[in-house]
Amino acid sequence: MPEDVAPAGSPPPAIDVHARVEPGTVAILDQLARWDLTSVETIRRSYAAVAAPPAPPRPSVTRHDEKIVGVDGRPDVAVRWYRPAGFDIAAEAPLPCLLWLHGGAYIMGNLDENDDRLDRMVIELGCAVVSVDWRLAPEHPYPAGLDDAETVWRQLADDPAAYGVDPARLVLGGASAGAGLAAALCLRLRDLGRAQPALQLLIYPMLDDRELTPSIRAIEDPGHWGLWHLRANRLSWEAYLGGLEGDDVPPTAAPSRATDLTGLAPAYLCVGDVDAFVDENVDYAARLSRAGVPTELHVYPGVIHGGFGAVPRTPRTAQLLRDVYAALGLAFATAT
Question: By C-alpha distance, which of 297, 303, 260 is closest to 280?
Answer without folding.
Answer: 297
